Amino acid sequence: MPVTASGDGRWQLEKISRADDFELRVVSRATGATVASTRSPDTQLALSFCPKGQTVAFLACSGGDRRFVLYLLDIGTGRVTSAQTPVTRSAASPIRWSPDGQRLLYTVTSGHSQTVVFHLQSGQWQRLGPPMTTRSEPAWSPDGRQIALVGAEQPGALALVSLDPPAIQTLHVAERCELRQVSWRPDGQALAATLRREADEYSSLVEVDLRTGSQTVVAQVPGDVSEPRYLGSSELLFRVSSGGDARLMSARTDTQTLRPLGPASGVVNMRSGATEGGRVFAVHVGRTSPPALLEVSSGQEPVVVARATSAWVSPCTDVEIRARDGLGLPATLWRSGTQAVSRPAALVVVHGGPRLQELPVWDARVQVLLRAGCHVLNLNYRGSTGYGARFERAGNDQERTLDVLAARDYCVAQLGVPRERVVLLGTSYGTSLVAAALAAEPDCCGAAVLVSTVSLAHIARRPLRALPRLVAFHGANDNVLAPARARREIEECLGPEALSREGSWSVFEHEGHHFHRLRSWSQVYSAIPALLGQVAAERA
Length: 540
What we know:
By secondary structure, the chain is mainly β. It is built from 6 helices and 36 strands. The strands form 8 sheets. An 8-stranded mixed beta sheet has the order 29-30-32-31-33-34-35-36, sandwiched between helices. A 4-stranded antiparallel beta sheet has the order 1-2-3-4, with no helix packed on it. α3 packs across α4 (429-440).
């Protein structure tokens, strides 16, 4: 898979996932030759090129234990070293290099989030600024002397943190709002920031003049604005998420004009920090196409510089499921065109979170199931992100459980799938919704799959009739719920016989709460056709 490219245009970074390990390759864009590589049983995340040197930084944890360590790959020697810096519980926030390439910052998350700056030459590190909001991302000033971030205690203000001498300047932007992501204008005299006011349905993009404190609305569109990047003193690149799609847009701050860029569907994510060499890199995953690396320059349409390929490119459709209380629930449907089984089957995917989202993009796991004769329905129950503030704030556990059952109803009524050939798959928080659906209606489906089970103690216990077939998968290093505790939660919630069948409980030795290895996911998804076969055999 293409990941990103260096700002000077010399190198491209590729990542290869094998059954049990992960390889990074730094490839010369001029010759296509691999100039450095490293292979590890632990996946490398938050990958970032140094703008002034031969270094790639990334975060990795041991066996999925979510104690992420900062690592540095030297392109010249291929050597990987760990930085003696604080561990973080999350690799979601990107690593940001200073403009001179001498320092980098990343977010340490452990109870709260805080910025850590690492000095490459000395090996020293320091914590800077106040604790941050969970969704904010810090950014370097163009001269590398300040960092802009959003403090947790004042989510409507920007904290401008000076490194030498240490100082913090607070710039109030708006009341009753949450600032999220920021970007410095190349002249250092203004900042672009995304924000969502309490009354807003979506986040918008504003430019804040650091000399006067005045603000200008740059973009307010029907969708969430994120990931701003200056392509010049008067041009901003950003991402707009609407429904399941996320595309690039450009705004001219001098003429107040907006222009969409690149593919209109699928999901794009920035893979560069501040603009380097007048360009940034982004990865686009289409509805029917695997990841492609895009190069975006000022005034130009994005150019594809690398692409993963697959012969399996089945399309998907946006559908709306009617909840039992009448609310419309967004979902994505992949229809199987394979007549591999005598009767249709369907998998309902219930994501974690709850404030996450299932996206309508190409996924190898989905493609495998389609060829096994199984439709795939990805549900975004109430509380999911991507559909506006009201939908994101809606719902409780009971209502979301009914949303899962409404998705099952859709499979039966609209897809013609018999109830016993519907499989529910829940991940993380989604396992609690699937378990609650089984407790409420034990015959709601033919089988269920639980991946990384969370606490089920809040689900009402009552004597259950015979449950559908159930399989559960858990990571040995899961720090949300230890494997023994997870199994006990399932048996206490759904009955002592819930996991009594052979092969119904699996613990992956080198995984944590989030599975990364191909072998782990292959076992999860190969269990689904096997379950359907077992159900069919029992009914026969």
